[in-house]
Amino acid sequence: MRHVANVRLESITKVFDGVTAVDDVDLDVADHDFMILLGPSGCGKSTLLRMIAGLEVPTDGTIVIGDVVVNDIEPKARDVAMVFQSYALYPHKTVRANIEFPLKVRGVSKPERAVEADRAAESLGLTEYMDRKPGQLSGGQRQRVALARAIIRHPAVFCMDEPLSNLDAKLRSETRAELVALHRRLDSTFIYVTHDQVEAMTMGTRVAVMSRGRVEQVGTPQEVYAKPATTFVAQFIGTPPMNLLPPGVAEQGDLIVGIRPEHVGVDPSASLRATVQLVEHLGHETLLDTRVGETRVMVRLDGDAVGPEIGTEIGLDVPVRHWHRFDPATGRRVDS
Amino acid sequence: MSVQPPARPRSRERARAGTAVGVDHVRGGWRMVGRYVVLVAVALLVLFPIYTTLVASLKPGSKVLDHPLLPGNFTLQVFRDAWTEGRLGRYLWNSTVVAVLVTVAQIATSLMSAYAFAFLRFPLKSFWFVVFLGTLLVPLEATLVVNRRTIDSLGWLNSYQGLAVPFFATAFGTFLMRQVFLQIPKELREAGQMDGLGHWGFMREVAIPLVRPTLGALALFSFLTSWNQYLWPNLITTEEKMNTVQTGLRLLNSSVPDIERFNVPIAGTVIAALPIALVLIVFQRQLVRGLTAGAVKG
Amino acid sequence: MSGRSLGRRGREWMLALVMLGPSAVILGVFVLYPLGRAVWLGHQRCDAQAKNCATKSWSEYTDVFQSREFQHSLWVTVKFALLTVPIGIALGIGLAVLADRHLRGIGFFRTVFSSTVATSVAVASLMWLFLLQPSRGVLANVGWLQDLFPVIKSPGLLHDPGTALSGVALSSIWANLGFTFIIVTAGLQSIPRELHESAYVDGAGGWRRFTNVTIPMLGPTLVFASVVLTSRAFQTFGEIDLLTAGGPTPQDSTSTMTYLIYGRTSPIKSDAGLQSAVAVLLFIVLLVLSLLQLRGIEKRVHYGS
User: Fold this and answer.
1) Residue C110 CB: number of other CB atoms within 10 A?
2) Which residue, B152, B83, A32, B214, is CA-closest to C51?
3) How far is A233 from chain B (nearest CA, A)?
4) CB A227 within 8 A of CB A322
5) Does residue C188 lie within any of the structural domains?
6) Which of C35, C102, C276 minimises the CB distance to B25?
7) Cβ contacts (< 8 Å) between C3 and chain A: which residues?
8) pLDDT tens digits for A31-64?
9) Facing B145 at nearest CB: one of C1, C275, C287
10) Tens of pLDDT along A249-287?
11) Does residue A263 share a domain with residue A216?
12) Which domains, and CATH codes, for chain B?
């Protein structure tokens, strides 16, 4: 059942009781994309996702799935499936009944339902749990049941709302890989909400970074990392975050200069002087926490580097080719 | 298993660490025996009226006092007499019909109105909810004069519908079910929407199954309340054959003036009490669990 | 879900109408309408079928309120409530605390204590009628009880104007035991264990824990039980009808307000207008009482955070 599953959002706005959760957003999700909506809590990413799924109605703007304007179409008719953060499994039904349920509602016959359910369950390794109830499963298993229930409909678009956030760290990284594999196997477009930039960078084909109801930048993970469009994106992506030097510090002029910690070097003869506040030996790398005037500048060195003493003054080498310039008023990137 | 605790802990640490000595475990052998003694005594006191009634029913009137606590040579004939003279068969049937009608109706109407209040949005919702709750404040007695007239004008005196219909809805039931419905996580409703469930489907597939214990308690409560109705049946039944068990008992009691046959109405009481006693023994845990889920914790 | 297209919203309103409809109709016709109509009837004087009504003035209400019969029945009802509610609650608490232990077989005792919930008004009242019957009743013929309370034999607890109400109260308290026990037990079980444990570790003995932890935390439960028991007390009818028929005459010592409206021997039985007036006054009294109880106790009791 191959359908064209691109999603287009045009001028989408959502206002709740006077609070603007989503502010005039345009977004294009290509067919078979793995689009990540990334941002801190409250940035509007979940609201955007829910509007795509049909759980919220936009205050303004249009949503197009395939070639159909879906604003007034009920979720069940949109060919969209949703995986909730808390999985939202029906606690009184067995795993099998949960997975089958979307088909049951659509009137699919019992034998056919069973075949599809078995197939979905097997692809997610759930076959031996089919007769249990959600209460008897672990978090990771429950999540897979939620996935199976979404898969069984072979939807055009998969919406996922922070599905990994309730899992422990080890399970999270395993599941990340599984989700990427799942995306490759299936025909669908994935739209995935998270606040975790590691997930975004490792899983997505494209990332939309959001802040306060607006999309700051859309691009591949590499683009977003290498050429952040705003200071927000620059500091949200990358750990430790990009250093932002106020105008006049790195060069004359009135632009903010950003440079990532791994691009900063220590050079005794450099003109930019900094005071060392803290030295963190992490084993695989060493981080210097320094101050240039009032501004904090992080420097990433090799693991075996011997850090200078706390309190000493050092010189920072900031090669121009790694600079990112931003307009202090708008926060936007300035390319010379 | 005997609860034999260690000696009184002397420090906080030991108190917290001990598992056998919890706050509500009875400590010390003597304390436990004492408590059992009190429990048994109180239980006897509570059961006293029931027991003596039972015993008294088995003896002819003159012999009731001979040995109040022991049946002696008893005869079951009195139960047969109470049954036929008291027409208890007919009355039990009436009570059952009415109680079942009321219970089913109350479940249906409460479920629906609770669902509307819990999951639907409509204008003036809070206002309507307050109006619903307001009906709880109106005592039954204030309504019966007019209700009798209404039922009369409908021609429903001495009928099952007259006995049952005024009680087909209950604000208490609505309130109780709404409480439990509100406890269902919102995401479950949304998952249902994604799966294609409309409201009726969601109610049938998810909401009702999840609130079954409370529903059961409501059913039990409705049945009990209807069964125990005294005033209303008294008001609207003038024909003897439409009496319920409650009013029938009164009839039986007043129709047996002969002191010798004092035990007949007593036996009638025993028969009347049996059905409910059985129902409650079977369902007691559900009743408590369900009722208190909504009512007290609010 | 917020913001729907007009179509969706309209459909939801229709659905709400359908779902609320049955309850609303029944409650409207059989609860709200009667109340309103009764208020209207109260200032009229009618026959027994509420026909042939002659409209008088609204001062009829004050007349009724000040009438001897009403004041008497109000007083009887209040006395009855004062007898049954505090004792009922105290006993309920006592039984609940008694049974609130993890002992073997405690379930049996709990069942016994809740058993009176299975008795209907008629059954419970008749049981006590039989017990208190002067010539044949077991309680009326126990030697040492007769010495303590001669009245139980002659003329009988229910036949003596001074004690008749207490006799009815006895039956009523016993019948309500099960209900109160269940409610208080549920309340006890909702008190977080840690509160008891912390008091226990601080050295508080049983009684102190009871007064400092149990009773305060039971606040809402007790309010609930008290409101329900008071309503029931004010609405007592079946017990009176079966045990004393409002008597003993001529003092009418057990003629409560409800009995005044509906009792067999009631003087206003034949005038629906008067009946309505008393019924409405009963409603008002009950309303005021309930509100007072809720407000008064709410101020003093800690609800727990």
Assistant:
1) 21
2) B152
3) 31
4) no
5) yes
6) C102
7) 56-59
8) 999 999 999 998 999 999 999 999 989 999 999 9
9) C275
10) 888 888 999 999 999 988 888 888 899 999 998 888 999
11) no
12) 26-77 (no CATH), 82-294 (1.10.3720.10)
